Amino acid sequence: MTDEPSSSEDEGGHQMSNQLTTSTPGESQPSTSGVGETAGRAFDSARDRLSGQAAKQQTKYVVGLFALVGAGFGITGYLIIDLLASANTPGGQFLSAIFSLALLAIVLLIGPVIAVYSSVRAADGLYDEPRTAYLTSFVSNFAGYLVMVLIAVLFIGAAMSSGGGGTGTTTQQTTQIASNTVNLDNLLLPMIALSIPVGLVGLGSTYLHRNQRPAADSGGSVHT
Question: What is the pTM of this model?
């Protein structure tokens, strides 16, 4: 009678030890799968935030604003380049090529300025949802910058291709450089790389604007 409890205790001890030994090797497996699950949940969360009605409206506004600026630069550039190339002057082709490069540089550099302005609306429209506001600001400015540069490059490239080759070694070389530069194949990677800081500028602008609003609305010394 006295031996039975001890045997049951031994069996229980063996069972506990077996459970520990069998569960120990499997502890490393959830770590790898957990990373994938976490990434999947984060992606689903981001997609859900961007699919909201308010986030869609802000994204359409920001991307539309970038598209308008790109169309404005592109159409204006197309007209000026076409006028310079078709002018009866020795340096018409040379000036059109130089202007194309200058216009492209302006389009590539103006992205952060537009991001600062456009992100204010995202900060106001999504003020009660800070995480959604930050995500929407980054994504919309990232995509908007790509759309702006794409539209501008299409117009500038069309103007360069219709301008002819010009005369003179220097003019031909400058025109060739401009034509190679204003090329989507050559600009694709730079466009994507430059879109990242534009998106970050939009995110930072949203953050600053959100943190200024409570101070301004609190009735403190901000009001004059």
Answer: 0.70
